[in-house]
Amino acid sequence: MGTNINSNMFSNFSFGGGNQNFFSDYASIKNGSYSRLMKAYYGRGYESDTSTNGGTGRRSSNVIEKLIEERMNPKVSKEVQEANANLTSGISSLKSSVSVLQNEKTYTDTEKGQTAEEKVVSAMKDYVTQYNNVVMNAKQSTLSGKTSHVAGMMRSTAENADKLSEMGITINKNGTLQLNERKLKDTDISKVQDLFSSKDITGYGATVMSRLQFAGTTSGTSGTTSTDKTNSTPGTAAASLKADSELLASGKLFDMIKDKDGKETYDFDKILATAKSFVSNYNNMLDAAKTSFNSGVSANLARVKEKTAQNEDALKQFGISVDKNGKMKMDEEIFKKSDMSKLQNFFKDYGSSIASSASLVNYYMTTQANSASGYTAAGAYNVQGSARYADSI
Question: Please, what is the average pLDDT of the chain?
């Protein structure tokens, strides 16, 4: 039974490699041979329509441009937002359910007449309800840092399918649980206590609790709680670049302060630190994302490089040069002599544009392409690179 569960439960949310690589490079799609191929394939989008005066005219919509725009500017639906919120709260509720099943008092009669068996049945019913709530919301959620741990929890459940079945709990094809209350009532409650015991750190209960604790402490968008800007994971680097770009594009960074003589001046140290961080995170994002096969990452990375190339001369006046690989380098001596008002005006447009594209790189890396640590936005999931669980939940 366990083998069947392992092979079938990760099957409902496939997201094929063909879709992932659908737009591997923005320029080649828009201008190259692949664009012509797509136009031919989607020829229906250009078929003639009959106009109101009896003539014919071509449809004004450009199918290729629409598809590219949808890829580069994804919209998170209301349903996904609700799933994200429900997953966060659901994880907390499920932790409470597991805690009850790990509590020794659950397995003793109460003075008010409630038997231990009744308490266990009630606790297990709540566990199944909360478990299913987490699983279903995880399938719709884009919080890959959390859903990766949910997937780990589900894998542990699949590995313990036979033990759970003995006490009336079976696993559905979509990974949710189903409880046979009558069979549970006939089960020796000591088996339930042993299965959920926190004393056995490799046991089912301890493993589930561990997964939930990790899921509850992650930021959601990635599988780590670290805020270190030197982290070279694509999502983290892109998110840090977005933050730096937004700060440089805002007027707040350039607010005047008074120096030791009472004269108003720019907070130069703060501006320099932000600019250096911007350059560092820009390069980190390029390094981390350049090997990505995700179409959204590739398209928005191309947009970042294009915008920077267009402003290469402007960047030079602030001591920021761009090499042949698109990487940035800062000359602090030139930067220190730069006009900060010109820097502010420049980053109003350039910084905002980079922030927008970096945000989308982060989006795609953490919600669609993070197969090594969680679900894609469509629900695909690879468990820590294990081929055995490389199907979709």
Answer: 75
Q: What is the DSSP string of 133-186?
A: HHHHHHHH---HHHHHHHHHHHHHHHHTHHHHHHTTEEE-TTS-EEE-HHHHHT
Q: For 240-282, how does the pLDDT look when each residue is reduced to its tens digit (9 = 90+)? A: 888 889 999 988 889 888 877 888 889 888 899 999 999 998 9
pLDDT band at residue 298, thresholds of 50, 70 and 90?
confident
Q: Work out the average pLDDT over 108-116.
A: 80
Region for 61 from its dihedrals, namely left if φ exceeds 0, alpha if ψ lies in -120 to 50, beta otherwise: beta
Q: Are 361 and 294 in contact (CB under 8 A)?
A: no
C-alpha 261/C-alpha 379 separation (Å) is 60
Structure tokens at 47: 């078929």
The CA distance from 113 to 128, in Å, is 25
Domain range list for the chain: 2-14+76-223+371-389, 234-367
Pairwise CA distance, residues 116 & 296, whole Å? 54
Question: What are the tokens at 291?
Answer: 């090997």
Q: Which amino acid is at 375?
A: Y
pTM: 0.44
- Residue 144, Cα to own-chain centre: how many angstroms? 4
Q: How far is CA 139 from the centre of its chain?
A: 12
What's the CA gap between 277 and 290, in Å, rounded? Answer: 20
Mean pLDDT, residues 163-192: 94
Q: CB pairs under 8 A, 24+ apart, for 78-85?
A: 79/140, 80/140, 80/141, 80/142, 80/377, 83/137, 83/138, 83/139, 83/140, 83/141, 84/137, 84/141, 84/142, 84/143, 84/220
